[in-house]
Amino acid sequence: MSIMFWDLTLLGIFLVLVSSFLIIERKKIKREGLLFLYHSKWGINLIDKIGKKHERFLKFLSYLSVFVGYILMIAMVYLFAKILVVYLFQADLVRAIKIPPITPLIPYLPQIFKLDFLPPFYFSYWIIILAIVAITHEFFHGIFAKISKVRTKTTGFGFFPFFLPIFLAAFVNLDEKTMEKRSNFEQMAVLSAGTFANILTAILGVFLMWGFFSLAFSPAGVMYDDYAYGFVDSVHITSINGINLTNPTYETLVNLTIPGNLNKILVGDEIFLGIKGISTDGEIALYYNSPAIRNGLSGAITKINGENIRSLDDLSRVISSHEVGENITVLTYNGSGYSEIILTVGNSPDGKPWLGVNFLNTKASGILGTVSAFTTSYKNNHIYYSPNFPAAKFIYDLFWWFVLISFSVALVNMLPVGIFDGGRFFYLTILSVTKSKKIAENSFKIMTAIFLALLVLLMFFWAKSFI
Fold first, then answer.
1. Residues 211, 240: one domain?
2. Residue 11: pLDDT above 60?
3. Is residue 328 included in any domain, yes or no?
4. Tell me, what's the pLDDT at 344?
5. How far is CA 331 from CA 217, 298, 307, 348, 362, in A?
6. Cβ count within 10 A of residue 73
7. Which residues are 226's β-sheet partners?
8. Is 173 within 8 Å of 152 (Cβ atoms)?
9. Model pLDDT, residue 167
10. What is the DSSP string of 350-403?
11. In the beta sheet, which residues pair with residue 301?
12. How wide is the angle at C-alpha 62 spanned by C-alphas 57 and 65, nearest 5°?
């Protein structure tokens, strides 16, 4: 049976269990805003024990936590500005992203919106990652509060309303009156502690992902970036698709191409098969008449005439061992299945045997279709890695999402907006600088209003991009 079947089964069981829990424990649940909060004493003894036992070390970490908080706040403001520019001026990219800028990360989101640039996001991923991220986030709030002599009154969990009983968050309920009496720095250390925990879990996740990848995946093919192309001056282009030309412009060439087809372009006696683009100095990039583009070669090259291709050296050696005009069988993998194609070895511009593929990207390619730049950079360039056992990719994607979500939660939580820890953190920063509560409160309100207005603007331009 498929992963989706078992994942949906787990979702159903989880909903039944959570619904039963909410009914049984309904007297301990209070509605606060849009959420139902379950208050308990779980973990308080552990928070107090660790906070007391490691007080000196945690005080040292509090300085690092506040520093990281500022770095994350600056990074998030910068990232928000970059996102704003994209949504305001790059409608094509916004349409490609598809999802609105304010969208909670819910199970199956990439599958629902068909976001092929992201790995699948299952419910099992969601509940495991959310539990780890939320619990460690709140736990660090608690232990950093302990070293500032701020009592944790209760701990607990938050849920959506009863008609959709999904676990949403963990929380620690601190003694706010005592908290407000502590120094600005102590309060900032407590506020930034949650995001500091998320950064630590993200770092841990990177190492786990790296270690798991090195054990669970093996080189199994070579991935290329494009078909081979060269640059020519437009004055030398004499025809395209049988239409004679004299010193054509780039726009003329593009208008005469047939989308989705090979386009025969003559440059003197030499044949090219398509337009790549135009360089900054005005030269036209044309695809060579190579075996790869003629036969529509695609996917990672895994075998040639039955010989395994596991590196660029393997590919170069095997191709060089064949003569120009010789037929070879190439096996490729496109992310979902294998394809076999018979090609005739071509003659490159420098007179050597070739397929006519190009390697542009200098970073490792990792797992076909689910790659992030940081995932396999320790591996050789352009290598496709095959899982050593069926569940390897499922587990790897779990680590991938864990790192991404941990880091994303840390960033978003430090936005200088009232609903996040970053809002109060920003307020205390202004208060520490100006020594004026009025200035700090006004700055806090203005900053929150600006970001909320910009969020509305993002949603407007997201909707506008589809009109």
1. no
2. yes
3. no
4. 94
5. 19, 10, 10, 21, 24
6. 23
7. 358
8. yes
9. 55
10. TS-EE--EE----S---STTS--TTTSTTSPTTEEEEESSTTHHHHHHHHHHHH
11. 222, 332
12. 125
Determine the pLDDT at residue 362: 45
Residue 394: name the closest of 421, 412, 367 by CA: 367
Q: What are phi and psi of 387, to 5 degrees?
A: -65, 140
SS3 103: coil
CB-CB contact of 69 with 196 (8 Å): yes
Does residue 172 sit in the same domain as residue 66?
yes
The answer to whether 138 touches 171, Cβ cutoff 8 Å, is yes
- Report how many domains make up the chain: 2
DSSP state of 98: -
pTM, 2 dp: 0.83
Q: How confident is the model at residue 193 (pLDDT cuts 50, 70, 90)?
A: very high
Lowest mean pLDDT segment, chosen from 104-108, 159-163, 368-372: 368-372
Is 25 within a domain? yes
**Residue 147 backbone phi and psi in degrees, to 5:** -70, -15
Q: Domain boundary residue among 267, 288, 309?
A: 288
Say if residue 26 is in the same domain as residue 95: yes
Res. 303: pLDDT tops 60 = yes
CA distances from 155 to 50, 134, 138, 145, 215 (A): 16, 12, 9, 13, 38
Residue with tokens 């660790």: 50
Per-residue pLDDT reduced to its tens digit, 256-282: 999 889 999 999 889 999 999 998 888
Distance of CA 395 to the CA centre of its chain: 16
Which residue among 266, 288, 310 closes a domain?
A: 288
Domain that holds residue 194: 3-217+394-464
* Dihedral sign of CA atoms 143, 145, 148, 152 in order: negative
For residue 23, give every residue at least 6 positions away whose Cβ sits within 8 Å of its Cβ, in sequence order, or none: none
180 with 79, same domain: the answer is yes
pLDDT in tens, 410-426: 999 999 998 899 999 99
Query: What residues contact 359, with CB distance under 8 A and at least 6 apart?
Result: 224, 225, 312, 381, 382
What is the SS3 assignment for 86?
Answer: helix
What residues have CB less than 8 Å from 268, skipping those under 6 apart? 236, 238
Instruction: Answer positive or negative: Cα dihedral of 40, 41, 42, 43.
Output: positive
